[in-house]
Amino acid sequence: MRRPVIGITTYVEPATRGAWVDVPSALLPHAYVRKVEEAGGIAVLIPPRHDGDEELVRELLVRLDGVIIAGGVDVAPELYAAERHPSVQSSRPDRDTTELAIATVTRELDLPVLGICRGMQVMAVAAGGSLVQHLPEYVGHDEHSPAPATYGAHPVDTVAGTRTADILGPRVDDAPSYHHQSVADHPGYVASAWASDGTLEGMEDPAARFRLAVQWHPEHGSDPRLFEALVAAAAPA
Predict the structure, then answer these.
(1) What's the pTM value of the predicted model, to 2 decimals?
(2) What CA–CA distance (Å, rounded) separates 51 from 93?
(3) Do β-strands 20-27 and 11-17 pair in parallel, antiparallel, or remain unpaired?
């Protein structure tokens, strides 16, 4: 059987390699790639484009079996008609454009999708939802993002009867977490996981073949089951 090809959205960031300093590069933490490969898929990277509209994205997606919308910087608040909070990071219009189009077109094509952290937020915004722009003001602590470049870890309870619960069981004991925003509204999705402080940690589309998202970073954990489920759903018939 042909291995499913999973596209993963990427960053464009300055990177240093030997004498080449701060060269703009399309890159992604290798943990995403490793998890897809270990689950039996073939990972390919999807660089963002300022012209990454739905027409271009459709040309790409018909060549893939599944997609991961990866983590990264904050979605521009203007895209969900909100005034920008002072904590919001500088926007990346190329990622916003490309990934919102990916979220929209994958839904039309019923292509299997896993959203991770920012990816979950992109999926919500693409569906007409909105975000909590600075979670510590809402929950009163920094547990979800304790320090720069430092993952938090906290339990997540899944919602019985959801696909997320079927995959992960009733609880994830130590979800790796690094986000200061969260999903507030998610039209067309059902809640599938929560943190004890009321933060939405998962959502899914029960009508889709495989369309779910989590707020934590499973690529940095030891549990492969979300990636295995994505690859299984994306496997060619």
Answers:
(1) 0.97
(2) 10
(3) antiparallel
Q: pLDDT band at residue 1, thresholds of 50, 70 and 90? A: confident
- Contact 184/80 with Cβ under 8 angstroms? no
Token reading at 14: 């300055």
Structurally, how many domains does the chain consist of?
Answer: 1
Separation of alpha carbons 151 and 29, rounded Å: 14
pLDDT tens-place string over residues 176-223: 999 999 999 999 999 999 999 999 999 999 999 999 999 999 999 999
Q: Name the residue range of residue 73's domain.
A: 5-234
What are 56's two structure tokens?
């271009």
Task: Please state the separation of Cα 1 from the chain's center in Å.
Answer: 27
State how far the Cα of 196 lies from the Cα of 158, in Å rounded to an integer.
11
Cα-based distances in Å from 165 to 15, 107, 168: 38, 21, 5
Whether 214 contacts 204, CB under 8 Å: no
User: Catalytic positions, please?
Assistant: 117, 217, 219
List the structure tokens of 55: 């027409």
- CATH code for the domain in which residue 105 is found: 3.40.50.880
